[in-house]
Amino acid sequence: MKESTQVLLGLGLGLAGGIAIAATHNPSLLSAADAIAPVGTLWVNAIRMTVIPLVSPLSSPAWHPHLTSRQSDDSAAERSPSSSACSQSPR
Questions:
Q1: Full pLDDT tens readout for the chain, 91 residues
Q2: pTM value surpassing 0.70
Q3: Among candidate residues 15, 18, 42, the one with its CA nearest the CA of residue 30
């Protein structure tokens, strides 16, 4: 069986098991689910710690070409003397 099929099967079985536990209203099953909940929280936080540093630089203005070129054009204009000042020479 392919790995992607196994992952989807596990996801479906976990979802079905969670729904079944919630539907039974059995106190021992609900307390067991509550005991396992911190593991799921740790897992989601670990995924966030991995994904957010990879995605956040993509939202930076430095990655947008139109902003970067505009900033470089503005800074180049500020650094270079004006053309009229260059063309005039003292006589």
A1: 999 999 999 999 999 999 999 999 999 999 999 999 999 999 999 999 999 888 887 777 666 666 655 555 555 555 555 555 555 556 5
A2: no
A3: 18
